[in-house]
Structure formats: C-alpha cells, structure tokens
Design goal:
Integrase_catalytic, DNA-binding, hpI Integrase, Chain A, single chain, globular, three-stranded antiparallel β-sheet, 432 residues, mainly alpha, DNA recombination, 10 strands, 18 helices
C-alpha cells in the first residue's frame, strides 16, 4: 500500500509525503518522499504522480529516482545510460502539471505511451533514454508518421514540454523539439474547411431527425439555435433555462474522467450531484474555459422548444436525456443516431457533417444577419476575439461589398463619401 500524508505548515502551505513499505509487505522497511517546494496544489499533484510511479514499480523506488532530488543524473559515466527513458520522464512531467483536468492528464499519458511504441524508419526513437533522442529523429517522426498534421502538432506540443522538463532536470542541454514545430499556418491549411448548413439543408436534416430517439430533432434545433457545444448542451439542467427572460446559463459541461476514475467537480456543484447526474467515463465539471461560463439569450422559437422539453421535470433534471432517461453519452448518440442519420442525409444529396458543425452553422447565420463579432464571441464563449475572427472572419460579407462600392465610385468618376451614419456619428461626437 502506498499512501499520501498531508501536513499544513505555519505558512499555510501543504507539504505532501508519499509513504510506503518496500515491496508492499508489512515487514518491508518504511520509506517516504517529501514534496514541499511548491504551492499546496503543486506539492499534492507531484506527490500523486510519484505515488503512481511507486505503485508501478511494485512498491519500490522508481528506477533512477534519488530521494529528495528526483531523477538526477550522477556525475561522470555515460549520460545516455544514466538518463531515464522518454516514457519515464514523460510520465513524471505529466503527473506534476497542476493546471489540467484528470481527463487531460489521462490523454497525455496515453500519448506518451503511443510514442514509446512508435516505430519510425525501423527504430523505436522514443523508447530510448531521453538524452539519446535527437532533433533529426524528431524530424523523421514528423515526416513519416501517418497522421494528420494537426494530430502531429498536438503530440509535438506535449513532446516539447517533456523535453523542456528534461532540460530543467539536467538530462539535456538542448530541447530537440525547439526548432521542429509545424508552422501554425500549415496546420491551419491542412484542416478541413468548416461546414455551414444552408437554411434548406438544415430543414431537411431536422425533418429526417424527427424519426430518431434522444429527441434528436430538438437537440439539433437547440444546438444550431444556441451555438452550444455538445458537452454543454447535454449538460443543461432545467434550472439553467430561464423561459421568462429567455436565457440559458452555461455553467457546466461533460468532462472525461482520469486514469483511475479521478474527477474535478467544482465545489459549488458537488453538493448538487445525484446518481442521475452520473455517466460512464464522464463527470460534470467546469466548461472549456472561464469565458465559456456564460449566459446565452434564446429566441422565442428556442424558448418554445425548451419549454416542451422541460415540462414536468425537476429543476435538477437534464433537459436532454437518452431513451432510458439517463444523460446523453456522446458515443451512444453517435452510434444510434448521428451515424445512421448522416447515412440518410447523404442519400438525399446533402454532404455529411459533424455535430460540431451545427455550432459553426449557428455563427454563419448570425454573421449573415449582421450580428457584431464581439457579441458572437461572448455568445460562443471564446476567450479572445482573435479566435472568433480567425475562425469566422471570412464569412463577413459587408466588408467586401463596401470595398466594391468604394472602388466602383472612383472608377465611375464619383467622389468617395463616408456613409451617412458615419458622418452623423462624427457630427454628434463633435457636438458632444
């Protein structure tokens, strides 16, 4: 058994001690490692990571770990032989990251394991000691790995962090990923174009969805009508819907659990969670970013749809549920509804699309109708207006039309004059 003891110091910082007996038996000599150099959160996160490494080592010290110092390279000798494997230092790095969710930690650990098994040009480059991996090997991986450039860019970001951590720990002098990152413009160019449904396509899809369970047609209508993400709209409770003021409150979303079922439920939500709020491999947590926690206005037609869905339900019931009354699981919905629905749609001559494209479609409607980008940014929960402009700026029609009118005026021998509302604004400003 390996356990963690916590001690609060006089400065209110919590020190964490990982304690166990060698070999795991009662007669084994008692061992401990202290984590006290950082904040309370950092100390606990590092202790939890070390605890898992001790368990994996059969209740022994992890190979290469020096008590009180971590993975430290001894003086002299062969540096390649002394350094830990990429997977070992990668796991240590991931387990000491504080500001990630349990699901993200689980994903990163899985990515490190994928890299450790990956064969590139007849070799396993990431199965080596971290100090033996060179820049050419990273480049060879980027060139040869048969994955989308976006996927490789995501893995590269994690690798950069692992190698940078190895530099900080003294195993490397240079990060082999430092000069190899895929260019952002190339990554963006490699991605599929966003799919926006026309009004006619949307109507046809909704008509098809009326025959499916999960209230599929209403879920599609509500997503396209609000721009919420799948994990947000399926996490809505009845109490999040304000029909009187025609708003919905986005304050939670579905998150993936950690490798051992760890969750990160906000303290305000913990007291409200009941059995009906649980779902396999997921838990209710904070939305994607701080600005994703928002209030979204809804139209009268949206209010009518939601009113029908919440009628007779308790305040803490989900707005959307499966046919058995449970939360909507993404993979179940995809298998039983979305995939067969897309098969039907394709037969009718409409190109298939992802559920997330309903969010893009929502934005395209708003832009076509003249909604200002800052309002759209707030509605979507984007952290920066740059994200909104980069993603949807090409849909703006007004700028191109105005430019054409200006050029035509000059070509026709006319004088360029600012639009009347701009002149009026200038006069009003001067008077004020």
């Amino acid at each position: 058994m390996v356990w963690i003891e916590k001690h609060k110091r006089s400065d209110k910082v919590v020190s964490a001690y990982v304690v166990w007996r060698l070999g795991g038996g009662r007669d084994g000599e008692k061992q401990f490692e202290a984590f006290s150099a950082g904040t309370s959160e950092q100390n606990l996160a590092r202790a939890e990571g070390f605890q898992k490494m001790v368990v994996a080592a059969g209740s022994h010290w992890p190979d290469g770990w020096v008590k009180g110092e971590g993975f430290v390279r001894p003086n002299g000798g062969d540096p390649t032989a002394e350094a830990p494997a990429f997977s070992t230092i990668g796991e240590e790095y991931i387990r000491q990251i504080v500001d990630i969710t349990p699901g993200q930690r689980k994903k990163y650990l899985s990515q490190v394991r994928v890299l450790a098994r990956l064969e590139v040009r007849g070799r396993l480059p990431f199965a080596q000691p971290v100090s033996a991996i060179s820049e050419p090997e990273v480049k060879a991986w980027l060139i040869d790995w048969d994955r989308a450039l976006k996927t490789k860019a995501n893995y590269h970001g994690l690798m950069y962090g692992v190698f940078n951590y190895a530099v900080e720990q003294g195993f490397l002098t240079v990060n082999p990923c430092a000069r190899t990152a895929p260019k952002r413009r190339r990554v963006k160019q490699s991605q599929a174009e966003l799919r926006f449904l026309s009004e006619d396509e949307f109507a046809a899809v909704v008509a098809k969805a009326d025959g499916y369970s999960y209230s599929a047609a209403d879920l599609i209508r509500a997503t396209a009508g609000t721009g919420l993400r799948f994990g947000e709209i399926t996490a809505l409770w009845v109490s999040d819907v304000d029909l009187r003021n025609r708003t919905i409150r986005v304050n939670k979303a579905w998150k993936r659990v950690g490798e051992n079922g760890e969750t990160e439920v906000p303290s305000w939500l913990k007291k409200q969670i009941r059995d009906k709020h649980t779902m396999r491999e997921h838990y209710l947590g904070n939305p994607k970013t701080p600005k994703s926690r928002r209030t979204v206005s809804i139209s009268s037609s949206m209010a009518t749809i939601l009113e029908k869905l919440i009628e007779g339900k308790a305040a803490n019931d989900f707005v959307f549920v499966s046919p058995t009354g449970r939360p909507v699981h993404n993979s179940d919905f995809y298998t039983r509804v979305w995939r067969p629905l897309m098969d039907e749609v394709i037969e009718d001559g409409i190109a298939s699309f992802r559920f997330h494209d309903l969010r893009h479609t929502h934005v395209s409607w708003l832009i076509a109708g003249g909604a200002p980008l800052p309002h759209i940014q707030a509605r979507l929960g984007h952290e920066s207006i740059t994200t909104t402009i980069d993603t949807y700026g090409h849909l703006l029609p007004a700028g191109d039309e105005l430019i054409s009118d200006i050029i035509d005026a000059v070509m026709n021998g006319e004088q360029i004059r600012p639009p009347l509302h701009l002149l009026r604004g200038g006069v009003d400003a001067a008077v004020a």
